Amino acid sequence: MKRGKKYIETVKKYDGAVSYSLPGALDMIKTLSYAKFDETVDVSVKLNLKKNQSVRDTVVLPHQFKGEKRILVFCKGEKEKEAQDAGAAFVGGDDLIEKIKGGWLDFDVAVATPDMMKDVGKLGMVLGRRGLMPNPKTGTVTFDLKTALAELKKGRVEFRADKTGVVHLAVGRVSMDSASVAENIQTVIAEIRRKKPADAKGDFIQTISVSSTMGPGIWVKNEE
After folding, report:
1. Beta carbons within 8 Å of 179's beta carbon, 6+ residues apart
2. For the segment 106-117, what is each residue's pLDDT rounded down to a tens digit?
3. Which residues of the chain register pLDDT less than 70?
4. Helices (H) and strands (E) in the chain — how many of each?
5. CB 188: neighbour CB atoms within 10 A?
6. What is the pTM of this model?
7. How far apart (Å, rounded) are the C-alpha atoms in residues 24 and 78?
8. Pairing of strands 40-47, 205-212
9. Burial group, residue 207, by CB count within 10 angstroms (0-12, 13-18, 19+)
C-alpha cells in the first residue's frame, strides 16, 4: 500500500517494535495525529482461536463518542408503542420491510421482536452485508424492547473476531481525554476475556494495538 508523505514522516517519530503501557500508547496517538479532522481511535485485539472457535458479543462503552443512533424496530401490536416510548426512530412491520426492499436504509441499528424474524429474515441479503441484521447474540432480537433500546442508546456496540482471530473496534476520538478512551478499551478487553471459549488453550489474547484513523498501529503491553 502506497503511503503519503505525512504518514511516512509520522512513522519516523516512534519505534514500531516497542510495546507501550495503555496510557503511553494513547499519548503517542495524540502525538502522532496529523489529520485535519477528529480521528477515531481503534483497538485491535489478536486472539488465539481455533478454526471452530468464535468470539462475538456486545459491550456498553462507559464513554460515548458518537452521535445518537437512529434505531429501527421491527414489531407489531402493543410492542409498537413500547418501541416508540423507548425512543425508536422508526417502528413498524411489513411497511418497513417493503421500504427496505426498495433501497431505504436510513438507520444505524435494527432491532426485532422474535415473532418478526421470519419476515425480517427475508432481508438477509440487504441487512446482513451491512451488519444491520438483528441477532439474538447481540441482543437485537428480543421482546424486551425497553431494555434493548436503553442499552443501545447508552452506546452498546457489537464486537466479533474476524476470520484471522482479530477483534477490531472503534473506542473513541483523538480529541477525547485519554483516560476515558483507556477506560473504553479496558472495558472491551474485559468483555473479550469473558468470552474466552472453554476449550481455548494457551494465551488467549496474543497482541493488543491501538491506532487512529490515519496513524500507524501502536503496540500495547498485554498485562493480563
Report:
1. 23
2. 998 999 999 999
3. 1-4, 6-8, 11, 224
4. 8, 10
5. 20
6. 0.72
7. 51
8. antiparallel
9. middle
